[in-house]
Amino acid sequence: MPEPLSHRLPEIASADADLAAKSPDLRALGEIRLMRLEDGPGRGQRLLVARNAAGIGFEIAVDRGFDLSALSLGQVQLGWHSQNQMRFPAQLPSSEDGYGFLRNFDGFLVTCGLSYYGPPRRAAGDTAVSPHRPQRDYPQHGEIASLPARLVGYGLDADAGVIFAEGVVRQSGVFGDVLELHRRVELGLYGRTITIADRVANCGFNPAPHALLYHCNFGYPLLDATTELTGAFGDFAGRFAALPPRPRPETREIVDHLTLPPDGRGDLAVGLRNPAIGIGVELAYRQAQLPSLVVWRSYQSGVFALGIEPGTALPRIENGELVTETIEARGSRDYGLAITVTSEI
Known about the structure:
8-stranded antiparallel beta sheet; 5 helices
């Protein structure tokens, strides 16, 4: 059997010195297009839809946190798609006693933050910054995933050989914190790794609470009874295998908080694969940036999802006060996440 073309793409790319002469607009190899949905629960929102020569596809929900709402290899969807169907406009996260997030929750990557992630909580407010709020409510997983982005740019960089998109999402309030998420997404024309480079900036003049979680969600067909955990999961991979992913009406979600050792460079790589379809996905990042790792198993029929979620230190409440990281006035924090799709085909 001849070697699949996808395995030879890097070799072809290096030999194609006159690529511009053969494909002046590069659409033979990849593209990224700005679209607007015209029907269904998501009508009116902007999407960036991209694909490359290796068969990797992704969508960016420009009006929902600039998140990767879909990830695919060829025609196989790898992320999770909920019954919410990318509703737009998003419901206020503070609604329904702080559980409004569940009305919006959908897609492969849902960024949580920028001040808080976790279940709904109430804590003392910083009255030096916000004199009208002695108590502050933190909705489930924060606000950022429900906010629209300012689209900075997108396209194909022929010199660098990448598809790219950049956006800025602002979380703000008068007499409140002003935080911005600056995000750049890149995918090589021949590559199978999507890189996300994030900078969270405090645009205010007082320290601001800060927490960030990359809620990476996987669904069927990548998630199935034959799915295995890969990478640095260690003993937890065995615990995962002891309860294979099978949908049942009565099943309740399981949330595990893990502490895993990084490699000698300080990196952590975790993922999953389904040998039945020969496809896997790996997440790699600097553990010093994202020391917390949450695994969410929700095998209830009609939900059936697995979340692998690197994040900053888990926020908590002590003596009525929110305890979390902070960003100094006019300061920033940088984060990076690499998402690699593997295939045995």
